[in-house]
Amino acid sequence: MEMMTFARQVGTAVFLVTLTLWIQCAGVAVLIRWARASIERGVARLSSLHAAVLMIQFSTLVIVLQFLQIFFWSLFYRWYCLPSWESSLYFSASSYSTVGYGDVVLPRVCHLLGPVESVTGVLMCGISVSCLFAVATRLVERESGAPPMQYVNGLDGR
Questions:
Q1: Contact 82, 106 (CB under 8 A)
Q2: What pLDDT does residue 20 have?
Q3: So what's the pLDDT on residue 105?
Q4: Which of 62, 77, 96, 149 is placed for a possible disulfide with 121 were both Cys, Cβ 3.0 to 4.6 Å?
Q5: Overall number of domains in the chain
Q6: Domain extent at residue 116
Q7: CATH code of residue 10
Q8: Is residue 156 included in any domain, yes or no?
Q9: Contact, 73 vs 15, CB < 8 A?
Q10: Can you tell me the distance from the alpha carbon of 114 to that of 92, in angstroms, rounded to the nearest whole number?
């Protein structure tokens, strides 16, 4: 394992955060497109059961998306920082979720990456939750027959 300088840690962190953002944004874009198509297809028959199934499917896919991001961080940890896949995945999942048990730690030359993954994980989880909320809101609007909320906080240009 080669010694990482601070500048190299920062560069690595920037690369991993950028990769995480690309995965999140691409994944969320696909999920939103899928959810929108599912809602539009089921306009006439979107019962409470169908809406619940759609939310379960969407939530499951969001969780898979989060685990994909955790996996990419763990790849780096396995190659450069930690001795096994088990410890790499465990450390990445506990950092990403901000649990941070502390029983597996990165070598001193990589310490910066754990907190960066934690901050990134919080942001990615927040984005995912906001998407879940948007889908749930859309489903409630469909079920109640209310028109979809198109303009929020005067952003309609009026």
A1: yes
A2: 97
A3: 92
A4: 96
A5: 1
A6: 6-143
A7: 1.10.287
A8: no
A9: no
A10: 8
Q: What angle do CA 72, 75, 76 make, to 5 degrees?
A: 100
DSSP state of 137: H
pLDDT at 4 over 80: no
| Whole-number Å distance between alpha carbons of 66 and 23 | 9
Q: Find where tokens 């896949």 sit.
A: 85
**Do residues 77 and 92 lie in contact, with contact meaning Cβ atoms separated by under 8 Å?**
yes
Q: Is the pTM of this model over 0.85?
A: no
pLDDT at residue 70 greater than cutoff 50? yes
* Listed residue (136, 100, 141) closest to 118, CA to CA: 100
- Is 105 within the bounds of a domain? yes
14 vs 125: CA distance, rounded Å: 19
User: Is 151 domain-assigned?
Assistant: no
Asked if 114 and 106 count as a contact pair (C-beta separation under 8 A), the reply is yes
Could you give the 3-state DSSP secondary structure of residue 10? helix
Helix (H, G, I), strand (E, B), or coil: what is residue 122?
Answer: helix
**DSSP states of 26-38:** HHHHHHHHHHHHH
Q: Give every CB contact of residue 26 below 8 A, 6+ residues apart in sequence.
A: none
